[in-house]
Structure formats: C-alpha cells, structure tokens
Amino acid sequence: MWVVVVVVVVVVVVVVVAEEIVVVVVVVVVVVVVVAVVVVEVVVEVVVVVVEVVVVVVVVVVVVVVE
C-alpha cells in the first residue's frame, strides 16, 4: 500500500508544478496503470490462497471418505 501513497504524493507534486495538460494526463494514466497493477496483484494473491484452501479441504474430505 505504501506504493500507492508514494504515487499519490508524486502525482500531487507533478500536478501542482506542471501547467501543461499533457503532463497531467500522462501522470493520471501512469497512476491508473500502477493502481491497476497493484489491484491485480492483490486479487491474484487472494485467488491463490483460496485455491490452496479449497485443495486442502478437498484432500481432507477425500481422505476422510476413503477411510
């Protein structure tokens, strides 16, 4: 999450310093991409954990049923 905070601070500084619309648009696009990448990483981690839990539960159920 510290990455998002750093990015937001950088964006605010750039927007305050910059007067050109193009620079602001580029910065906004970069921020959106960075946030999207962070969100995707978090979602992937959550999915991996869920899949691991499901696999463990299935294995336990199969072992219990077989015995």
Describe the structure.
Keywords: Membrane, Transmembrane, Transmembrane helix. The chain crosses the membrane at residues 6-39, 46-66. This protein is 93% helix and 0% strand. With 67 residues, it is an all-alpha fold. It has one domain. Helix 1 (2-17) runs antiparallel to helix 2. The radius of gyration is 21 Å and the shape is rod-shaped. It starts with a helix and ends with a helix.
Note the gap between the termini.
46 Å
On the 0 to 100 scale, the average pLDDT is 83
**Alpha-beta classification:** mainly alpha
Structurally, how many domains make up the residues? 1
Estimate the helix proportion, in percent: over 70%
Task: Please provide the count of β strands.
Answer: 0
What is the radius of gyration? 21 Å
Please indicate the percent range of residues in DSSP E strands (runs of 2 or more): under 5%
Shape: rod-shaped
Query: How can the largest sheet be summarized?
Result: none
Stretches with pLDDT under 50, minimum 5 residues: none
Give helix and strand order, one letter per element, not per position.
HH
Question: What is the number of helices?
Answer: 2
